[in-house]
């Protein structure tokens, strides 16, 4: 139920992002989803890839500062109100969302929403209770 | 300008008289060290030296050197030669790790230190009629209180403003009309520029002289300060381990500083071999505190590089002169008048569980020294949360402030930015042109 997301520290300098994409390309890693949290001096690049453990090893070999974070992926129907339902379930249970990013899954007419929350177990239980579909990791890596 | 001496009987004494005083004091000091400081008892015994072996100042080179690490290893009061009840003052300055370098003084030590500073103020033309504006920081650092006690010793009036609040410093210069100002040279330049920006004509200010130290400054900086503030700018040198400011001071010739060698005997040595070098040759400056009671350091290695000269001085003083220090044998920096050792940054990083990979970038903007500490963000300290990274930055900045005693900007960087070098890593980039 938990997805391994790569979190990478990047300085706000030209060329730093391309070093990362270059490394992933070299090791034939496919990116499935991506988001960047930016601050003045640095950013945190968050990636969902098809082979997270391999990607972690490859990036570490290049002395890139990287770690794996457990996030949750939910599948919501690609209709108006789809996201609202899921977010309401979480807020009703007092579960704070640290960050989220979403992308469409063309194969199944759903949207995949990646969520980072403080308590993964509690969030998963609440979402399932509320009828929200939690995606399995292998489903996410092979989107 | 008429020469102004505080203690002409010693400042202008003949060399034979000075030598006699030095020999007497050294002989007495060596006995005191051997009998009262276990560190020196051990050291002398190890080298097979007995106090009686030292009969005059010529025997000084028989004695061992003392290093800053000895003060650190005996932190805080392990090298004191007198009982606690005889200590009347404690000061401290930057250490090379997390602990400060601690020094102590008896009443007599304060008197000789004050005498030294009084000599300096008199050499800058100061008299008991003057009001001395002191903009060095007051506190554990020796700058503020050192000048303060020296000015009072001279009989002058003191204005203990301390540092900071530049607008107020200027208001005081205008309204209280001090005659002499004392602060770091970069702060003096900053005050001068602020006056200019505020449209204040410094020719209208009565202040006529300044005594500047605690950091290195060039002839170019002197010219700039003298022009901006319309004063004569004098150099002063010192270090807490020996006493504080006043160990040596510039006179009207403004070409080298007279050392209070009746209190603090100077030698120049080859830093690698320890051999004493002749006049005119550059080497490491070493002091022996022949007149001090609380912390009588033997051949203390300052790590400052300069030369000394016994050449006749037009001011009439016969005390030996040291030239402006030209650099250091270690990697110590002086930032906003505060000593900073790169090893202090290492200490803070390892204490916080971080890799000690960093780069210090020092600059000077508008005469204000800035320090940026670039620290490597590695996988084990990295967090996926911006909030956590910000917390780490704040924690690091606070820990650095506590240890260094000055504020630094923390910038987290990728390991690649700092790079790896073969051999000793480059830890400091100093962009200042002094």
Layout of helices and strands:
The complex is a heterodimer of chains A (about 140) and B (about 425).
Chain A: E1 2-11, H1 16-26, E2 31-38, E3 42-49, H2 52-61, E4 66-77, H3 82-92, E5 97-105, E6 110-117, H4 120-129, E7 133-134, H5 137-141
Antiparallel strand pairs in A: 1-3, 1-4, 2-3, 4-6, 4-7, 5-6
Chain B: H1 8-11, H2 15-36, H3 38-47, H4 68-73, E1 89-93, E2 101-105, H5 107-123, E3 131-134, H6 142-154, E4 157-159, H7 166-175, E5 180-183, H8 185-197, E6 209-212, H9 219-229, E7 232-238, E8 245-250, E9 257-259, E10 265-269, E11 283-288, E12 300-306, E13 308-309, E14 321-322, E15 327-328, E16 333-335, E17 338-340, H10 342-351, E18 358-365, E19 368-376, H11 386-404, E20 409-413, H12 415-418, E21 428-430
Parallel strand pairs in B: 3-4, 3-5, 5-6, 6-7, 18-21, 19-20
Antiparallel strand pairs in B: 1-2, 7-8, 8-9, 9-14, 10-11, 11-12, 12-15, 13-14, 16-17, 18-19
Total helical segments of chain B: 12
**Can you identify the CATH class of the largest domain in chain A?**
Alpha Beta
Structural category of chain B is: alpha/beta
- Structural domains of chain B: how many: 2
What is the CATH topology assignment of the largest domain in chain B? Rossmann fold
Q: Which strand-content bin applies to the residues of chain A? A: 35-45%
- Rg on CA atoms of chain B, Å: 22 Å
CATH topological fold name of the largest domain in chain A: VC0802-like
- CATH A-level architecture of the largest domain in chain B: 3-Layer(aba) Sandwich
Report the helical percentage of chain B: 25-40%
What separation lies between the terminal Cα atoms of chain B? 29 Å
Approximate strand percentage of chain B = 15-25%
Q: Whole-Å distance between the termini of chain A?
A: 15 Å
Name of the CATH homologous superfamily of the largest domain in chain A: VC0802-like
Instruction: Name the CATH superfamily classification of the largest domain in chain B.
Output: ANL, N-terminal domain
Main sheet characteristics of chain B = 9 strands, mixed
Per the principal axes of the C-alpha atoms, what is the gross shape of chain B?
A: globular
